[in-house]
User: What shape does this take?
Amino acid sequence: MPDPAEPDPAEPDPTEPDPTGGPRLLAVSDLHVRHAENRDAAADLRPSHPGDWLIVAGDVAEQVEDTVATLASLRERFAEVLWVPGNHELWTRPKEEGALRGEPRYRRLVERCQEVGVLTPEDPYPVWTGVDGPVVVAPLFVLYDYSFLPPGTSTSEEGLAAAHAAGVVCTDEFLLYPDPYPTRQAWCDARIAESQRRLDEIDPAMATVLVNHWPLTRYPTRILRYPEFSLWCGSTRTADWHVRYRARSVVYGHLHVPRVTWEDGVRFVEASLGYPREQKARAERGMVTEPLPRQILPLPAPEPDPLAKYDKPL
Assistant: This one.
Protein backbone atom coordinates (compact mmCIF):
# COMPACT_ATOMS: atom_id res chain seq x y z
CA MET A 1 0.00 0.00 0.00
CA PRO A 2 1.46 3.40 -0.91
CA ASP A 3 2.61 5.70 1.89
CA PRO A 4 0.14 8.65 1.96
CA ALA A 5 3.00 10.88 3.12
CA GLU A 6 4.91 10.33 -0.10
CA PRO A 7 4.21 12.83 -2.91
CA ASP A 8 3.01 10.24 -5.38
CA PRO A 9 1.93 11.64 -8.74
CA ALA A 10 -1.78 12.19 -9.23
CA GLU A 11 -3.71 9.95 -11.56
CA PRO A 12 -3.99 11.11 -15.16
CA ASP A 13 -7.04 13.06 -16.27
CA PRO A 14 -9.22 10.53 -18.17
CA THR A 15 -10.43 13.33 -20.44
CA GLU A 16 -6.89 13.74 -21.78
CA PRO A 17 -5.52 11.27 -24.36
CA ASP A 18 -3.27 8.53 -23.03
CA PRO A 19 0.32 9.64 -23.78
CA THR A 20 1.05 6.14 -25.08
CA GLY A 21 -1.75 6.59 -27.61
CA GLY A 22 -3.30 3.26 -26.66
CA PRO A 23 -6.77 2.26 -25.48
CA ARG A 24 -7.80 2.36 -21.84
CA LEU A 25 -10.22 0.52 -19.59
CA LEU A 26 -12.36 3.18 -17.88
CA ALA A 27 -15.10 3.07 -15.26
CA VAL A 28 -18.04 5.04 -13.92
CA SER A 29 -20.93 4.17 -11.62
CA ASP A 30 -24.05 5.66 -10.06
CA LEU A 31 -24.96 7.90 -12.97
CA HIS A 32 -28.55 8.32 -11.68
CA VAL A 33 -29.69 9.88 -14.94
CA ARG A 34 -33.15 10.83 -13.65
CA HIS A 35 -31.36 14.02 -12.56
CA ALA A 36 -30.90 16.44 -15.48
CA GLU A 37 -27.36 17.37 -14.42
CA ASN A 38 -26.40 13.71 -14.41
CA ARG A 39 -27.96 13.08 -17.80
CA ASP A 40 -25.72 15.83 -19.12
CA ALA A 41 -22.70 14.26 -17.41
CA ALA A 42 -23.49 10.87 -18.97
CA ALA A 43 -23.85 12.49 -22.39
CA ASP A 44 -20.43 14.08 -21.94
CA LEU A 45 -18.63 10.77 -21.32
CA ARG A 46 -16.32 10.26 -24.28
CA PRO A 47 -13.44 7.93 -25.15
CA SER A 48 -10.03 9.43 -25.89
CA HIS A 49 -9.12 6.43 -28.07
CA PRO A 50 -11.40 4.39 -30.37
CA GLY A 51 -10.41 1.26 -28.46
CA ASP A 52 -11.46 2.51 -25.00
CA TRP A 53 -13.73 0.25 -22.94
CA LEU A 54 -16.18 1.59 -20.34
CA ILE A 55 -17.34 -0.19 -17.18
CA VAL A 56 -20.68 1.05 -15.80
CA ALA A 57 -20.91 -0.28 -12.25
CA GLY A 58 -24.63 0.03 -11.60
CA ASP A 59 -27.30 2.55 -10.60
CA VAL A 60 -27.79 4.04 -14.05
CA ALA A 61 -31.52 4.62 -13.51
CA GLU A 62 -34.65 3.17 -11.89
CA GLN A 63 -36.58 2.53 -15.10
CA VAL A 64 -35.51 -0.27 -17.45
CA GLU A 65 -35.85 1.84 -20.60
CA ASP A 66 -33.89 4.76 -19.10
CA THR A 67 -31.11 2.37 -18.13
CA VAL A 68 -30.97 0.74 -21.55
CA ALA A 69 -31.15 4.04 -23.45
CA THR A 70 -28.22 5.44 -21.47
CA LEU A 71 -26.13 2.30 -21.95
CA ALA A 72 -26.98 2.12 -25.66
CA SER A 73 -25.80 5.71 -26.10
CA LEU A 74 -22.53 4.91 -24.35
CA ARG A 75 -22.11 1.77 -26.46
CA GLU A 76 -22.24 3.94 -29.60
CA ARG A 77 -19.16 5.79 -28.34
CA PHE A 78 -17.03 3.15 -26.63
CA ALA A 79 -15.52 -0.01 -28.13
CA GLU A 80 -17.07 -2.08 -25.33
CA VAL A 81 -19.46 -1.26 -22.49
CA LEU A 82 -19.80 -3.57 -19.50
CA TRP A 83 -22.71 -3.14 -17.08
CA VAL A 84 -23.51 -4.62 -13.68
CA PRO A 85 -26.79 -3.95 -11.86
CA GLY A 86 -27.09 -1.73 -8.83
CA ASN A 87 -29.94 -1.67 -6.39
CA HIS A 88 -31.72 1.19 -8.19
CA GLU A 89 -32.10 -0.81 -11.42
CA LEU A 90 -33.70 -3.57 -9.36
CA TRP A 91 -36.29 -1.39 -7.64
CA THR A 92 -39.94 -1.95 -8.51
CA ARG A 93 -42.20 0.94 -7.55
CA PRO A 94 -45.87 0.38 -6.61
CA LYS A 95 -47.09 2.54 -9.50
CA GLU A 96 -45.24 0.43 -12.10
CA GLU A 97 -48.25 -1.51 -13.29
CA GLY A 98 -47.26 -4.97 -14.47
CA ALA A 99 -43.58 -4.33 -13.78
CA LEU A 100 -41.26 -7.26 -13.23
CA ARG A 101 -39.73 -7.85 -9.79
CA GLY A 102 -36.56 -9.47 -8.50
CA GLU A 103 -34.80 -12.03 -10.68
CA PRO A 104 -37.21 -11.60 -13.64
CA ARG A 105 -36.50 -7.86 -13.61
CA TYR A 106 -32.75 -8.52 -13.60
CA ARG A 107 -33.09 -10.99 -16.48
CA ARG A 108 -35.10 -8.47 -18.47
CA LEU A 109 -32.35 -5.88 -17.97
CA VAL A 110 -29.76 -8.41 -19.14
CA GLU A 111 -31.81 -9.24 -22.22
CA ARG A 112 -32.25 -5.59 -23.15
CA CYS A 113 -28.55 -4.84 -22.61
CA GLN A 114 -27.57 -7.73 -24.83
CA GLU A 115 -29.86 -6.38 -27.55
CA VAL A 116 -27.84 -3.14 -27.66
CA GLY A 117 -24.42 -4.82 -27.44
CA VAL A 118 -23.70 -4.14 -23.76
CA LEU A 119 -21.96 -6.91 -21.81
CA THR A 120 -23.53 -8.14 -18.55
CA PRO A 121 -22.72 -10.59 -15.72
CA GLU A 122 -24.46 -13.29 -17.77
CA ASP A 123 -22.11 -13.00 -20.76
CA PRO A 124 -18.70 -14.65 -21.26
CA TYR A 125 -16.08 -12.57 -19.49
CA PRO A 126 -14.14 -10.45 -22.00
CA VAL A 127 -10.34 -10.26 -22.02
CA TRP A 128 -8.64 -6.88 -22.03
CA THR A 129 -5.56 -7.12 -24.26
CA GLY A 130 -4.31 -3.54 -23.99
CA VAL A 131 -1.51 -2.26 -21.76
CA ASP A 132 -1.28 -4.29 -18.51
CA GLY A 133 -3.18 -7.13 -20.20
CA PRO A 134 -4.21 -9.73 -20.88
CA VAL A 135 -6.71 -9.39 -18.04
CA VAL A 136 -10.13 -11.00 -17.65
CA VAL A 137 -12.73 -8.33 -16.87
CA ALA A 138 -15.42 -9.97 -14.73
CA PRO A 139 -18.72 -8.10 -14.32
CA LEU A 140 -20.44 -9.52 -11.24
CA PHE A 141 -23.89 -9.35 -9.71
CA VAL A 142 -23.41 -10.03 -6.02
CA LEU A 143 -26.01 -8.56 -3.70
CA TYR A 144 -25.72 -8.14 0.07
CA ASP A 145 -26.67 -10.39 2.97
CA TYR A 146 -26.67 -7.97 5.92
CA SER A 147 -23.32 -9.33 7.16
CA PHE A 148 -21.58 -5.92 7.24
CA LEU A 149 -22.80 -5.39 10.80
CA PRO A 150 -22.90 -1.99 12.50
CA PRO A 151 -20.90 -1.56 15.73
CA GLY A 152 -22.39 -3.18 18.81
CA THR A 153 -24.31 -5.87 16.92
CA SER A 154 -23.45 -9.51 16.31
CA THR A 155 -26.24 -10.80 14.05
CA SER A 156 -28.08 -9.44 11.04
CA GLU A 157 -31.27 -9.31 13.11
CA GLU A 158 -29.54 -7.13 15.71
CA GLY A 159 -28.01 -5.01 12.98
CA LEU A 160 -31.36 -4.38 11.28
CA ALA A 161 -32.98 -3.57 14.62
CA ALA A 162 -30.22 -1.05 15.33
CA ALA A 163 -30.64 0.48 11.87
CA HIS A 164 -34.39 0.89 12.32
CA ALA A 165 -33.86 2.39 15.78
CA ALA A 166 -31.39 4.89 14.29
CA GLY A 167 -33.76 5.73 11.44
CA VAL A 168 -31.24 4.50 8.86
CA VAL A 169 -33.12 2.14 6.54
CA CYS A 170 -32.26 1.61 2.88
CA THR A 171 -35.09 2.08 0.38
CA ASP A 172 -34.31 -1.46 -0.82
CA GLU A 173 -36.37 -2.72 2.12
CA PHE A 174 -39.45 -1.38 0.37
CA LEU A 175 -38.64 -1.55 -3.35
CA LEU A 176 -36.05 -4.29 -4.00
CA TYR A 177 -37.99 -7.54 -4.18
CA PRO A 178 -36.14 -10.89 -4.18
CA ASP A 179 -38.70 -12.87 -6.27
CA PRO A 180 -38.68 -15.84 -6.62
CA TYR A 181 -36.33 -16.15 -3.64
CA PRO A 182 -37.85 -15.84 -0.16
CA THR A 183 -35.38 -13.16 0.99
CA ARG A 184 -32.67 -10.87 -0.33
CA GLN A 185 -30.17 -13.00 1.61
CA ALA A 186 -31.30 -16.08 -0.31
CA TRP A 187 -30.92 -14.24 -3.62
CA CYS A 188 -27.46 -13.13 -2.51
CA ASP A 189 -26.57 -16.75 -1.68
CA ALA A 190 -27.51 -17.80 -5.21
CA ARG A 191 -25.57 -14.93 -6.79
CA ILE A 192 -22.45 -15.66 -4.76
CA ALA A 193 -22.58 -19.34 -5.72
CA GLU A 194 -23.00 -18.51 -9.42
CA SER A 195 -20.28 -15.86 -9.36
CA GLN A 196 -17.83 -18.21 -7.65
CA ARG A 197 -18.57 -20.91 -10.19
CA ARG A 198 -17.83 -18.52 -13.06
CA LEU A 199 -14.71 -17.07 -11.45
CA ASP A 200 -13.35 -20.52 -10.63
CA GLU A 201 -13.48 -21.34 -14.35
CA ILE A 202 -11.01 -18.55 -15.23
CA ASP A 203 -7.52 -19.74 -16.18
CA PRO A 204 -5.50 -19.48 -12.93
CA ALA A 205 -2.67 -17.90 -14.92
CA MET A 206 -4.90 -14.92 -15.79
CA ALA A 207 -5.23 -11.73 -13.76
CA THR A 208 -8.64 -10.10 -13.40
CA VAL A 209 -10.51 -6.86 -12.94
CA LEU A 210 -13.51 -7.55 -10.70
CA VAL A 211 -16.57 -5.33 -11.11
CA ASN A 212 -19.53 -5.22 -8.72
CA HIS A 213 -21.91 -2.45 -7.71
CA TRP A 214 -21.56 -3.23 -4.01
CA PRO A 215 -18.10 -3.24 -2.36
CA LEU A 216 -16.49 -6.68 -2.22
CA THR A 217 -14.84 -5.90 1.13
CA ARG A 218 -15.97 -4.14 4.29
CA TYR A 219 -13.08 -1.65 4.26
CA PRO A 220 -14.68 1.07 2.07
CA THR A 221 -17.71 1.33 4.37
CA ARG A 222 -15.55 2.75 7.16
CA ILE A 223 -16.13 6.21 5.74
CA LEU A 224 -19.94 6.06 5.95
CA ARG A 225 -21.51 8.83 8.02
CA TYR A 226 -24.15 6.36 9.22
CA PRO A 227 -22.45 3.00 9.89
CA GLU A 228 -25.82 1.24 10.00
CA PHE A 229 -26.08 1.68 6.22
CA SER A 230 -23.25 -0.84 5.79
CA LEU A 231 -25.86 -3.60 6.17
CA TRP A 232 -26.95 -2.89 2.58
CA CYS A 233 -23.41 -2.69 1.18
CA GLY A 234 -22.10 -6.21 0.58
CA SER A 235 -21.20 -9.58 2.03
CA THR A 236 -18.30 -10.76 4.17
CA ARG A 237 -18.16 -13.86 1.95
CA THR A 238 -16.51 -11.89 -0.88
CA ALA A 239 -13.79 -10.39 1.34
CA ASP A 240 -10.93 -12.42 -0.17
CA TRP A 241 -12.03 -12.47 -3.80
CA HIS A 242 -9.53 -9.80 -4.86
CA VAL A 243 -6.74 -12.13 -3.69
CA ARG A 244 -8.31 -15.47 -4.60
CA TYR A 245 -9.10 -14.34 -8.15
CA ARG A 246 -5.84 -12.43 -8.79
CA ALA A 247 -7.38 -8.98 -9.20
CA ARG A 248 -5.33 -6.15 -10.66
CA SER A 249 -8.14 -3.82 -9.71
CA VAL A 250 -11.62 -3.91 -8.19
CA VAL A 251 -14.30 -1.50 -9.42
CA TYR A 252 -17.42 -0.71 -7.41
CA GLY A 253 -19.88 2.08 -6.61
CA HIS A 254 -22.95 2.35 -4.35
CA LEU A 255 -21.32 4.42 -1.59
CA HIS A 256 -21.24 7.71 -3.51
CA VAL A 257 -17.76 8.31 -2.12
CA PRO A 258 -15.46 8.40 -5.16
CA ARG A 259 -11.97 7.41 -4.08
CA VAL A 260 -9.10 4.97 -4.59
CA THR A 261 -7.98 2.64 -1.79
CA TRP A 262 -5.56 -0.27 -1.62
CA GLU A 263 -5.98 -3.68 0.00
CA ASP A 264 -3.40 -6.46 -0.21
CA GLY A 265 -1.65 -4.55 -2.98
CA VAL A 266 -4.85 -4.39 -5.06
CA ARG A 267 -6.31 -1.10 -6.26
CA PHE A 268 -9.98 -0.55 -5.34
CA VAL A 269 -11.80 2.16 -7.30
CA GLU A 270 -15.14 3.65 -6.20
CA ALA A 271 -16.21 5.24 -9.49
CA SER A 272 -19.50 6.92 -8.63
CA LEU A 273 -20.89 10.18 -9.94
CA GLY A 274 -23.62 10.32 -7.28
CA TYR A 275 -26.42 12.80 -6.82
CA PRO A 276 -26.03 16.46 -7.84
CA ARG A 277 -26.33 17.59 -4.21
CA GLU A 278 -23.40 15.33 -3.28
CA GLN A 279 -21.28 16.63 -6.14
CA LYS A 280 -22.02 20.19 -5.00
CA ALA A 281 -21.17 19.39 -1.38
CA ARG A 282 -17.84 17.85 -2.38
CA ALA A 283 -16.99 20.91 -4.44
CA GLU A 284 -17.91 23.27 -1.60
CA ARG A 285 -15.67 21.34 0.80
CA GLY A 286 -12.79 21.38 -1.65
CA MET A 287 -12.88 17.59 -2.04
CA VAL A 288 -11.66 17.48 -5.62
CA THR A 289 -12.00 14.06 -7.23
CA GLU A 290 -10.63 12.73 -10.48
CA PRO A 291 -12.82 13.51 -13.50
CA LEU A 292 -14.99 10.67 -14.69
CA PRO A 293 -14.65 8.15 -16.12
CA ARG A 294 -11.85 6.82 -13.92
CA GLN A 295 -8.92 4.99 -15.48
CA ILE A 296 -8.60 1.34 -14.46
CA LEU A 297 -6.06 0.05 -17.00
CA PRO A 298 -3.30 0.79 -17.73
CA LEU A 299 -2.78 0.93 -13.97
CA PRO A 300 -2.10 4.53 -12.96
CA ALA A 301 0.70 5.39 -10.54
CA PRO A 302 -0.25 4.94 -6.86
CA GLU A 303 -1.68 8.04 -5.25
CA PRO A 304 -2.49 9.15 -1.69
CA ASP A 305 -6.07 8.87 -0.44
CA PRO A 306 -7.18 12.29 0.84
CA LEU A 307 -10.31 10.73 2.38
CA ALA A 308 -8.44 8.26 4.62
CA LYS A 309 -8.64 10.68 7.54
CA TYR A 310 -12.43 10.27 7.56
CA ASP A 311 -12.35 6.47 7.93
CA LYS A 312 -13.71 5.05 11.18
CA PRO A 313 -12.56 1.83 12.90
CA LEU A 314 -14.58 -1.23 11.96
Remarks:
- The two ends are 19 Å apart (CA to CA).
- The chain has one domain: 25-305.
- The chain has a mean pLDDT of 92.
- The domain at 25-305 is CATH 3.60.21.10 (Purple Acid Phosphatase; chain A, domain 2).
